Amino acid sequence: MRKIVIAIAIAGAMALVLLAAGTAQNHGCLPWKTAVTTGSGVFSENDRGRTICR
Predict the structure, then answer these.
(1) Would you give the distance in Å from CA 44 to the centre of its chain?
(2) Which end of the chain is more exposed for a tag (fewer CB within 10 A), N or C?
(3) By 3-state DSSP, what share of the chain in percent is helix, strand and coil, each rounded to 5?
(4) How far is CA 19 from the centre of its chain?
(5) 1-42 pLDDT, tens per residue?
(6) Which pLDDT belongs to residue 6?
(7) Dihedral angle computed from the Cα positions of residues 26, 28, 32 and 33, in that order, rounded to the nearest 10 degrees
């Protein structure tokens, strides 16, 4: 029983690491959402826009 609990804990920790990595690559949005950047344009020098998760 103890080995099963340890295996589940390790699998949960690995899932959290994968979720954090996917969120970091998706501009702060969860992996199953789409990151949409708004507000930036060709002539806006310092405005990087805003990222919205959809």
Answers:
(1) 27
(2) N
(3) 45, 15, 40
(4) 6
(5) 999 999 999 999 999 999 999 999 998 999 999 999 887 667
(6) 97
(7) -100
How far apart (Å, rounded) are the C-alpha atoms in residues 48 and 37? 9
DSSP code at position 43: S
30 contacts 54 by C-beta, under 8 angstroms: no
Extract the runs of DSSP E, i.e. beta strands, from 1-54. Answer: 35-38, 50-53
And the tokens for 3?
Answer: 């080995």
Q: Give CA–CA dist 29/19, Å, rounded.
A: 10
Write phi, then psi, for 8 (nearest 5 degrees).
-65, -40
pLDDT at 11: 98
Which run of H or E residues covers position 31? none
